[in-house]
Amino acid sequence: MTATDPRPLTGEPVAVDLVNTRWMLEGQPADLFAGAAGLGRLEGLEVWLEANGLTAERGFRADKATLVHLLTAREALARAFRDPADPGAVSLIDAVLEHGRIRATLTPEGVGERAEFADPAWGPAWTAARDYLDLLAAGPDRIRKCASCTCLLHFFDTSRNGTRRWCSMAICGNRAKANRHYARTRER
């Protein structure tokens, strides 16, 4: 049985969810792949794989090689989120993408695609890097960092008008509103 996911924000696209494996917990940095919430490194990896549907049934394993490749992809994506034109980030993402390919398929349901990997340990990292390409195609300006200066989380803004500012209104958004209210009442 997989442990409970301790992260404050889940359900984002795979690329964003991978970057969000680092977050702030009670004012301190936390890392799902480095023992956050009492999970071991591979337990954290198992939680992340399960949360993103990258399970053993699909040929993915929570092992050291997969973790190393995911850490490479996470660093590349984090750099690209900060500066999409960063040549180092672009080069790292491209290097991750070298480890997989899309194969066109025809099934009874119609035309499809299937990812293929020479080494399955690269599968989750490649999937996250490939997802980043899809996010760039959908709206590169909608990949955002939470507006809270104390938050490390990112999100893909799917709001109709593209004005989402917070990773979560329940957490960072509410905290910002409470701080503004407190400042206004203190001034009086």
Explained architecture:
With 188 residues, this protein is of the alpha+beta class. The protein starts with 13 loop residues before the first helix and ends with a helix. Strands 1-2 form a two-stranded antiparallel sheet. It has a two-stranded antiparallel ribbon with strand order 3-4. It is built from six helices and six strands, in the order αββαααββαββα. It is 44% helix and 16% strand. α3 packs parallel to α5 (123-138) and α4 (87-97) packs across α5.
Brief sketch in words of this structure:
With 188 residues, the protein is α+β, with helices and mostly antiparallel strands. It is built from six helices and six strands; from the N terminus they run αββαααββαββα. The strands form three sheets. The protein has a two-stranded antiparallel sheet with strand order 1-2. The chain has a two-stranded antiparallel sheet with strand order 3-4.
